[in-house]
Amino acid sequence: MRRYFVVSLLCLLPVWTASADTFSFAYTGSLYSGSGTLTAVNNGNGSFTATSGSGFYDGFAISLIPDPSAPSFAISSSGAFYYDNGLLPAQNPVIDSGGLLFSINGLGATELNFCSNGLGCGTTGGYASLLNNGHYNSDGVTDSGKFTLTNVPEPSTLAWLGLSLLGLTMIRRQSLAGLGLESGRRNPARLGPRSLN
Asked: Less Cβ crowding at N or C end of the chain, within 10 Å?
């Protein structure tokens, strides 16, 4: 039984190491607010690159625009933003001046950029959300606010925890059964006659 358990854990190991990280984000500005989830790959240096994501911004659905030159910066299709979809979860700020680029579903070519601390972002402290109408510097809106990023445990992490607890339980039961103890009680049939000494 123990052999099958070890083999099943080894089979799950590639799934564990290949999984991407999931983050939830929230933005609260003076004019607008938004939230959603991001899937990101680990760059190996404490930073992550978001590869997909979705959420809502001021009631509109938003979708992450992938960075074709990740983890380097790219220029948005309108030319209004440079972005890298970079995440820095262990640092402050948690996104850089390039930030995250989203399209706003239902509003044509409107782009949304969440960014922090920099000339390209339009803020010198904190976070901002920048909007444009799909044309460079045309009808742009800047909103300063707060951006938070939280790592969401993957289902595989929870599965590993559950399998570990199950394995420990099985090993404990086998140990008790080998001693003739089951559920903490002495099993006379397994131990033989009891000594009266």
From this structure: C
**Residue 98: phi, psi to the nearest 5?**
-75, -45
CA 61 to chain centre: 19
CA atoms of 124 and 116, how far apart (whole Å): 8
Q: pTM (2 decimals)?
A: 0.68
Residues pairing with 60 in the sheet = 57
Which tens digit of pLDDT belongs to each residue from 27-65?
Answer: 998 888 999 999 999 998 999 999 999 999 999 999 999
Q: Are 61 and 105 in contact (CB under 8 A)?
A: yes
Output the six-digit token pair for 104: 């706003």
Say if residue 97 is exposed, middle or buried (CB neighbours under 10 Å; 0-12, 13-18, 19+).
buried
HSE of 11 in the Cβ direction (CA atoms, 13 Å)? 7
Residue 45's region, left for phi above 0, alpha for psi from -120 to 50, else beta, is alpha
Q: Which amino acid is present at 32? A: Y
Position of tokens 């933005």?
A: 27
Q: Is the peptide bond before 66 cis (omega within 30 degrees of 0)?
A: no
